[in-house]
Amino acid sequence: MSRAERLIDLIQCLRRHRRPVSGHVLADELGVSLRTIYRDIATLQAQGARIDGEPGVGYLLQPGFLLPPLMFAEEEIEALALGIRWVADRADGSLGAAAQNALAKIAAVLPPDLRDRMDASALLVGPGEPIVGDGVDLAIVRRAIRSERKLSIAYRDRDGAPTDRTIWPFALGFFDRLRVLVAWCELRGAMRHFRADRIVAVTALEARYPRRRQALLKEWREAEGIRER
């Protein structure tokens, strides 16, 4: 492995850890010595990477640092292409179009040989069951999640009974046949799951909800027994 490749791998390792990670853990993940980790951390810091920490304490990469140019292994390219093609085929219209645009942008910056391998990838997205149509434009829901703003929704339960809710949306799950919105429901005073095809109408509110989205997501994962990846 060249030094440039090792530095890129070190950046990726740091990105995977959201909390300070020790030099010993980084050395084990990369298969190098602790002394090499210290030297590479210093090199990245000199190149402008905002890496907080010090030997014996742990390191945390602050967001906003890119190490150009983009470098992908062949399997990473296949994984990206497969995932993006699944989104393009199975997500809602605007997100599917965004996935196709993203794939085109990635292909545009790849060297010609890697671009050809992406185009010729033998990993295909097979046909799935028909997707239940969404009741509303999910782009509105995604914007509310990103901005941590409340939504007012008109909803029908499994028996078709109508109800109006004010919710704090913090996650949107994409399954093979349907989409599920995860939110804190002010009416119930608890977290609830709302099938997107049963949402009759949605209105984005100006009010921000009082808790951070990441905190709500973490609490929901713990309640559902879902491990963070």
TrEMBL record:
Pfam families: HTH_11, WYL. Residues 138-203 form the WYL domain. Residues 6-59 form the Helix-turn-helix type domain. PANTHER family: PROTEIN PAFB (PTHR34580:SF3), PTHR34580. This is YafY family protein.
